[in-house]
Structure formats: structure tokens, C-alpha cells
Write a structure and sequence with these properties.
The chain is of the alpha+beta class. It has helices spanning about 10-20, 60-70, 80-85, 120-125, 180-190, 215-230, 235-245, 265-275, 320-329, and strands spanning about 5, 25-30, 35-40, 55-60, 110-115, 130-135, 145-150, 170-175, 200, 295-300, 315-320.
Amino acid sequence: MNHIEFREDNAGFLEWTSKNPHGFVLNVFPENRKRTKIHRASCSHLKEIGSMHLKVCATQPFTLADWGKVHHFVNGHVPFCGACLRGMHLPNDNARPCSVSPKPLASPPPLIHFQNDEAGYNAWLLAHPDGFVMNVRHPPEKHRLILHKATCGNINDASVSDSEAPFTGGKYSKVCSLNHALIANWARDSIPGVTGYTHLCKNCKPDAPPIKADEVEKQRWGFERAVAISLDGGVEARRKRLAEAPTKPTVTYAFARLFQRNPDVVAEVLHNANGKCQGCGKAAPFHSKATGKPYLEVHHRTPLAEGGEDTVANAVALCPNCHRQQHFG
């Protein structure tokens, strides 16, 4: 049996928690299911068992989350003690282990993206207080991908929403790992135009290196947004600003992530195109000064920044007009 139930058995319950300080307890209130929560076995919020209370104990929080789902507690998912999520009530590592343990679960994946999975996410937090979490909005905010400690109060405040999936549903999901580098790689490969998480939480101050932003992409995104604001802001106001604007642009120096593309891929794609745009089918508009060949631009169907391969199969030769349309149309 992967869990043990204690009802009106204070002695048995206290003996189990003393032998399993790293275990977990589902404190069940049948008369008030909103108070039913999962705690660490060492949590000071656990009280002695009353006649109406039930304690379900296990060495893994996932087991208790599954128990709660089976018994239809709290709309299908079991909330977790807020203090335990914040890393409080941690047990003494020198405590005596239990002589009889439930069957251990398989090791969790090195990185998990929790979507509409409150029980799984909260269980992961409880089991990995030394882990890292990145909160992701949908659609992703490219310049607000904040890395937190798993114990950070900023991401574990259950009072922010009363919905069934306040942390992993709707506009939010969570990317979790014991390795902050894996989270940075996930952001780089999954969200176009970013090099990793963009900020370290100022509240919990995770022990992880800052990731430099792709300044070129950041500047381009900001410029396009500024143009959109100008277009929507009215002609008179824009022309007034133009009359007062400096004629020389400001110069900035940027750090950027560059891909070392394979020249053979570009050459093969251009050769196969034979001087004709593979988008509109028209001949190249002019000849290149560098090569003397018809000028076409090689475009990756799946961008390299989104994990696309630098291969002939993933590339197409386009005229400048069709190429711009692919990026901005």
C-alpha cells in the first residue's frame, strides 16, 4: 500500500511522522473540504486527530494528490499548505527513516512544463524545495520571463485566485526543473526571440546567473511597438514631434546571439531555385554584387531561433519582397 490512513489514532499518526519526517500528510476535513490540504510531515500546522479528522500519509506528495482526486476532494485537486510550499517546516535531516516505505516513484523528468495540472505542479514544489520555476504567460511575454526559487512566495500565493487552476491554467503555465540552465534552454528553444529567462526574482533571489537578452531582437521589437503607437497616436501629434526631433539617430551597441549558418545549405538552396523566387515564382529582381548571381534570400521555414534545423529541407529561396512578407506580413 502506497499510503496509510489514520483515523482516531494519534499514537499511530505521531509515530509515523516521527519515523517519516520527510513524508507528507493529507489533513482531511470531511465537514470542510476547503480546509483539506497536503502538508509536510514536519509541518507545525498539523493538529492532533479529532473524531471528524482523517490523516492520509505517504512518502510522496503525488500519492496524496492522486488519493484526493479519487475521493473527489476540492473539485478534483488537493491544495497544498502555503507555509510548506514556501519551504517552511523543513525536517531535520538526521531524523530516523521509516523502516517500511511505500514503493518509490520513478525519478521525475529533468524539466516539466505544467499546463492545467495544479496537483502535479504543487506536488513537484513540495518534493523539490531546492528547484527553480519560471512563470509563463500565454501568449508569452518575451521580456518578462522571471526565474524563481520553488519556495518563492511570489508564485505560491494561493490567495491570488479562487479558480480551479490558478497556477497552471488559463493564461499561466509553469516550467520547473532542478537545473536553472534547463529552464533557460527551454525558453530559448520554445519562445522566439529570447535567449533564456529574462529576470531573476528580486524577492527570492535564486542562485542562478543572469541571462543576457538578445539586444538586437529586443530593440527591433521595441521599435516596431513604438511605430504602432505612433500610427495610432494621431497625425498632428506625430508631426509636432517630428518638427522638434533631432535629425541624427542615437547610436547604441548591442549584445546578440548569432547563428553560424552553413554556407553549403545557402548555396544548395540558391542552386535549386535557379534564379526564381520560390514564393511568388518571379525571377530575382537583380544580380548580387558579391556573387554575380541572381539575388535571392535564403529563409528558414522554421526559424533557427525556434529550434529549426539549418538544412536544405528547412530552407527556401525568396525575393526580398516575399522574404519581408514571411517575417512581417
